[in-house]
């Protein structure tokens, strides 16, 4: 069931990609509206290696020499104190992890442990080889352990998370109160559940409720709302202008990428494509308006998605409305 639906989505997405490059929608011919520019040959930095939305899987591998240059030890709990110094993540992801663990405790009384963050190519090679030994074939091993060069852990943007009551990394974590909290709240801090039940045809992995991947709050929340694998999300995101990926808030991103993943071309895409630098802020604002939930202002959506520092100019704040900026933003 899930398999055929996702395949249809993939085909539709490929068709959409072709249609963005070549004008093949009759509506475009009738209205003569300018079509979005073809995707740039160089992907925006956010989609490239080192960017928050860089996609890594068995089909998209990285070199054995890649190592992020901003790895730090997050100030979070671990199963044993001695493990703490061995756990590393890239700076922004580490800060987000600290915020998430703190919120889990303050909001719900849950203690979370960090189990495994950055892993070098060499360490991944050792894990992979021992899994192959254990299960007897590469094929079986690859359902559980990524071959070296294809692990999210090499990016320094992934963390395996544990609960005190479930110290093995297995699907039981998803049934613990801590695991349920992570599944429902990780996006508020910029993390997604990368491998969910029913996505194996797309991601290549069985469900891993303990494995979270940092993509930033705007994208994590859009992905959470759309409930689609990162592969599907990134295929559509790659068709958006770079400034939309770095400055668009979750209502806009979900509003655009949801229909795109289903093979449709949202009308807003036409106005966003080809905007000059000076026009971008206004285009983002106008394109976001139809997707804003009732009672949420554009500024609230932006502040939720980019707490501080924001990647673009600060939002205009009406001083009279200042007291209403914070409720319900969760940020
Ligand atoms: Zn993991």
Structural topology:
Layout: H1 2-21, H2 26-31, E1 71-72, E2 89-90, H3 91-108, E3 113-116, H4 121-135, H5 138-141, E4 158-162, H6 177-185, E5 191-193, H7 200-203, E6 211-214, H8 217-226, H9 230-237, H10 242-247, H11 250-261, H12 268-272, H13 280-288, H14 298-305
Antiparallel strand pairs: 1-2, 3-4, 4-6, 5-6
Helix pairs in contact: 8-11, 9-11
This protein binds zinc ion.
What general form does the structure show?
Answer: globular
**CATH third-tier fold name of the largest domain:** Muramoyl-pentapeptide Carboxypeptidase, domain 2
Structural class: alpha+beta
When the domains are counted, the total is 2
How many distinct helices?
14
Please identify the top-level CATH class of the largest domain: Alpha Beta
Strand order of the largest sheet: 3-4-6-5
**Which second-level CATH architecture of the largest domain applies?**
2-Layer Sandwich
Hey, roughly how much beta strand do the residues contain?
Answer: 5-15%
First and last CA, distance? 36 Å
Largest sheet: 4 strands, antiparallel
Overall mean pLDDT? 85
* Ligand names: zinc ion
Order of helices and strands: HHEEHEHHEHEHEHHHHHHH
Summarize the structure.
By secondary structure, this protein is of the alpha+beta class. It is 40% helix and 6% strand. The protein has helices at 2-21, 26-31, 91-108, 121-135, 138-141, 177-185, 200-203, 217-226, 230-237, 242-247, 250-261, 268-272, 280-288, 298-305, and strands spanning 71-72, 89-90, 113-116, 158-162, 191-193, 211-214.
Structure explained in plain terms:
The structure is a single chain. This protein is an alpha+beta fold and 331 residues long. The protein has 14 helices and 6 strands. It folds into 2 domains: 2-44 and 230-312, no CATH class; 54-214, Muramoyl-pentapeptide Carboxypeptidase, domain 2. It has helices at residues 2-21, 26-31, 91-108, 121-135, 138-141, 177-185, 200-203, 217-226, 230-237, 242-247, 250-261, 268-272, 280-288, 298-305, and strands at residues 71-72, 89-90, 113-116, 158-162, 191-193, 211-214. Helix 8 crosses helix 11 (250-261) and helix 9 (230-237) packs across helix 11 (250-261). The longest helix is centred in the N-terminal third of the chain and has 20 residues, at 2-21. The two termini are 36 Å apart. Mean pLDDT is 85; it is low at 1-8, 14-33 and 313-331. Bound molecules: zinc ion (ZN). Zinc ion is lined by residues 153, 158, 160, 211.
């Amino acid at each position: 069931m899930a398999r055929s639906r996702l395949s249809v989505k993939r085909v539709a997405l490929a068709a959409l990609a072709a249609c963005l490059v070549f004008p093949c929608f009759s509506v475009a011919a009738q209205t003569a509206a300018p079509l979005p520019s073809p995707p740039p040959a160089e992907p925006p930095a956010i989609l490239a290696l080192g960017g928050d939305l860089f996609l890594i899987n068995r089909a998209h591998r990285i070199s054995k020499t890649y190592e992020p240059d901003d790895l730090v030890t997050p100030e979070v709990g671990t199963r044993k104190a001695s493990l703490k110094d061995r756990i590393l993540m890239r700076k922004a992801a580490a800060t987000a992890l600290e915020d998430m663990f703190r919120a889990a405790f303050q909001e719900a009384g849950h203690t979370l442990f960090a189990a495994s963050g950055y892993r070098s190519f060499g360490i991944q090679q050792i894990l992979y080889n021992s899994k192959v030994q254990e299960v007897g074939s590469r094929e079986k091993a690859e359902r559980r352990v990524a071959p070296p060069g294809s692990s999210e852990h090499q990016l320094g943007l992934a963390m395996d998370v544990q609960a005190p009551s479930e110290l093995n990394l297995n699907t039981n974590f998803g049934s613990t109160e801590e695991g349920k909290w992570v599944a429902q709240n990780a996006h508020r801090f910029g993390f997604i559940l990368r491998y969910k039940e029913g996505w194996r045809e797309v991601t290549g992995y069985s469900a891993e409720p303990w494995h979270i991947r940092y993509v930033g709050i705007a994208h994590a929340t859009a992905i959470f709302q759309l409930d689609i694998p990162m592969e599907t999300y990134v295929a559509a995101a790659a068709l958006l202008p770079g400034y939309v990926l770095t400055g668009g808030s979750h209502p806009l991103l979900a509003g655009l990428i949801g229909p795109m993943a289903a093979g449709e071309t949202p009308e807003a895409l036409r106005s966003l494509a080809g905007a000059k630098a000076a026009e971008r802020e206004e285009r983002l604002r106008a394109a976001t308006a139809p997707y804003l939930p009732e009672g949420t202002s554009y500024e609230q959506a932006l502040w939720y998605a980019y707490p501080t520092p924001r990647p673009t100019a600060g939002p205009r704040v009406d001083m009279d409305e200042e007291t209403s900026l914070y409720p319900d933003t969760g940020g």
